[in-house]
Design goal:
single chain; 124 residues; alpha+beta; 2 helices; 5 strands; flat
């Protein structure tokens, strides 16, 4: 059973001051920042953001400037780490999990050669 969700009030105050409560595709037009014609399966460093579908604070809450994970947040952390174990050409650099989204850097290196030596340790 999941723990009762606590308020993400400090995050919500900041978030709601910039963003409307609900996404409306008729008025919110997001343009792609992908490079036209770029092959994103090639080797490289990729910054990714993964959001909770309804933008609810299901992953945790921030208390005294520290993220405290809920059960769903622990699952997201495990899934992030799983990527490097599942795919031999994927290495993980820094990531940060927020109450309703994750930012991270995924490195694709075909042949399994990470760009920085410490990245090899992500597979342990």
């Amino acid at each position: 059973m999941l723990p009762a969700l606590k308020s993400c009030e400090p995050f919500n105050i900041l978030y709601n001051s910039f963003m409307p409560e609900e996404y409306n595709p008729n008025i919110h037009h997001r343009r792609s920042i992908r490079l036209p014609g770029y092959d994103y399966s090639q080797d490289g460093w990729y910054f990714v953001t993964i959001c909770e579908q309804a933008r609810k604070c299901l992953f945790g809450e921030i208390i005294n400037a520290k993220m405290h994970l809920f059960e769903y947040g622990r699952i997201v952390e495990e899934c992030w780490k799983w990527l490097a174990h599942q795919f031999k050409d994927v290495f993980l650099d820094e990531h940060v999990l927020m109450p309703n989204h994750l930012h991270g850097i995924i490195i694709i290196r075909k042949g399994g050669c990470a760009a920085r030596p410490y990245l090899q340790n992500t597979r342990t």
